[in-house]
Design goal:
The chain contains two helices and 25 strands. By secondary structure, it is mostly beta strands. The chain has a single domain (about 5-265), classed as 6 Propeller (Neuraminidase). The strands form six sheets. The protein has a five-stranded antiparallel sheet with strand order 8-11-12-13-14, with no helix packed on it. It has a four-stranded antiparallel sheet with strand order 1-25-24-23.
Length: about 280
């Protein structure tokens, strides 16, 4: 196993974003977006945050119930980017100033019921929003390859998927890269491989564009919700480790009472691809 350093603990750590020296993370039941480096917390009352992204002006885009909120950690300004949805999970820049993101049936999850179908949506830089894929089991980690021609997507409880991206972000026929029911978070490296975490897996998998496993990294715990690269050379690897029993409690709408989750850092064998930023005009 690589040498992992524990950085902080929580109840169920999830949304993870590394921007320069700042490491942002969320604790879905405690709430808030927390900066590991500075100790700052923003949106302390917002819970069930599964995704974070940085806008070009330094504001954080924050997923969760109802849609996507935003907050500028420097000025304290905040607002709503997307409203009227049951919930939003992971988000990624589309490389053109907008984002792609997955919706989830958060009210059903909070009731301890089986959630309804998920969708993938595209929000252009001008605010135009549309559904580009629907009828999915559960939308989780997603990213766009370096060429901007393929959307990689973790359909939790089913498999790791890939879609070709056509004009106006229309998605082509879906390909299954790996049958992996617990697929959760995702990050790309500079070689174009996808690093996949699992909410009941003690290994981090690295897949190439065909779904072939090219590397496997043993983790310091039984499950992992999210993975991000960072550091000056992009070879620092951050993971959020959780207890699968707590994942089951989330699914049942039961409280999580112990801090069994932790954020760790190690060194990766390859550099990560930098995350793009959105370019929305906020405020």
């Amino acid at each position: 196993m690589p040498d992992f350093t524990e950085l902080t603990r929580g109840f169920y750590l999830e949304g993870l974003l590394v921007e320069g020296e700042d490491v942002w993370f969320t604790d879905v039941t405690r709430g808030g977006v927390h900066n590991l480096t500075t100790g700052q917390t923003v949106l302390p009352d917002r819970t069930m945050i599964g995704g974070l992204l940085m806008n070009s002006d330094g504001a954080l885009l924050v997923a969760g119930g109802g849609g996507i909120d935003w907050v500028n950690p420097q000025t304290g300004a905040q607002g709503t980017l997307v409203s009227g949805l049951d919930g939003v999970n992971e988000m990624r820049s589309d490389g053109q100033g907008g984002i792609v993101f997955g919706t989830i049936d958060l009210p059903a999850i909070l009731r301890g019921e089986k959630p309804g179908p998920s969708s993938i949506r595209h929000l252009a830089a001008d605010g135009t929003q549309r559904i580009i894929k629907e009828g999915l089991v559960f939308a989780n980690g997603l990213t766009i390859d370096a060429a901007g021609t393929s959307l990689l997507f973790n359909e939790s409880f089913v498999a790791v998927r890939a879609f070709p991206i056509g004009p106006d972000f229309a998605l082509g026929d879906m390909r299954t890269l790996l049958d992996k029911p617990d697929c959760d978070g995702m990050a790309l490296d500079v070689e174009g491989n996808a690093w996949i975490s699992g909410f009941s897996s003690s290994d981090l998998l690295c897949l190439d564009g065909t779904g072939r496993e090219v590397a496997r990294l043993a983790l310091p715990g039984p499950a992992c919700t999210n993975v991000r690269f960072g550091g000056p050379d992009m070879c620092d690897l951050y993971v959020t480790i959780v207890d699968p029993a707590d994942a089951q409690k989330l699914a049942e709408g039961a409280p999580i009472t112990e801090q069994n989750s932790a954020l760790y850092r190690t060194r990766a064998p390859v550099a990560g691809a930098p995350l793009g930023r959105s370019a929305f005009v906020l405020g």
